Amino acid sequence: MEDSGKKGGVGTGAGAHGAALSAQGEDPTGRWRGAGLLLIALLALARAAALARPPPDPRTLGRPIALDIEALQGEDFRLLPGVGPVLAARLEAARLEAGGRLRERDLSHVPGVGPSLRAQWALLRSR
After folding, report:
1. How far apart are alpha carbons 82 and 88 in whole angstroms?
2. pLDDT tens string 27-57
3. Burial grade of 95 (CB within 10 A; 0-12, 13-18, 19 or more)
4. Residue 75 placed within a domain
5. How many domains does the chain have?
6. What is the pLDDT of residue 62?
7. Is 123 helix (H, G, I), strand (E, B) or coil?
8. Minimal CA–CA distance to 77: which of 88, 65, 64, 89?
9. Which DSSP category does 71 fall into?
10. Helix (H) or strand (E) holding 46
11. Does residue 15 fall inside a structural domain?
């Protein structure tokens, strides 16, 4: 009876417990290994995406820009204050509808462009 837990019998020690877990396909030491590797891969991907963007030109930071609404096209409209992706798409559609050049008089026909936005944009032009 003394050696029932040692050879051939069912033991209650760590060796028997580890063998039972391995037989079930569970590895207590590497349970989180896959999640950790996935996290590392995601962090590396995020860092690579951040490095892929070109840095802003320090000579142009903080300087006012000349604003000519007639010269803007596509994603350029997002440079205007108060313009997100939806309004930029509307402005681009209005520009194309107007023959490729969006004029001041065309702005009143664009949904979402009201007097307050036009006033903000007028302040940018006067700089």
Report:
1. 10
2. 665 667 777 888 898 888 888 877 777 766 6
3. buried
4. yes
5. 1
6. 65
7. helix
8. 88
9. G
10. helix 33-52
11. no
